[in-house]
Amino acid sequence: MRPHPFRVLDIAEEIPGCMTMRVAPDGAGGDAAFAPGQFYMVYVFGHGEVPISVSGDPVKSGELTFTVMAVGSVTQALCAVKPGAVIGLRGPFGSAWPVEAAKGRDVIVMAGGLGLAPLRPSIYRLLHDRNDYGDIALLYGTRQPDRIVFPQELADWRDEALIDVDVTVDTAGRDWPGKVGVVTELLKGRDVDPGRTSALICGPEIMMRFSAYALLDRGVAAENIHVSMERNMKCAVKMCGRCQYGPFFVCADGPVFAFDRVQRLFRTRDV
Amino acid sequence: MVEIKGIRTLLAENPFFERMSDDHLETMAGCGKLVHFKPGEFLLREGDEAVTFYLIRDGEVAVESDIPAAGPLSVARVGAGGITGYSWLFPPHRNGFDSIALTNVSALALDGECLRGKAEADHELGYQLMTRFAQVMLDRLQAARRQMLDVYANGRTTDAASG
Question: Which residue among B77, B100, B163 places its CB closest to the CB of A179?
Answer without folding.
Answer: B77
